[in-house]
Amino acid sequence: MDKNIKQLLEILINNEVITASQIASIIHLSEKTVRNRLKILDKELKDNVK
Questions:
Q1: Residues 18/12, Cβ–Cβ less than 8 Å
Q2: Per-residue pLDDT, 22
Q3: pLDDT score for 49
């Protein structure tokens, strides 16, 4: 899992509600990149958590 995805997961765990824009500001990525990383994270979780 790459560094940005780990950061993203930590942010999601620690925040009940947060927008892609807010996440992008925190980890210094574009909103589109955040959305793409969310898709990757979602797929990894679905593949590995059964």
A1: yes
A2: 98
A3: 82
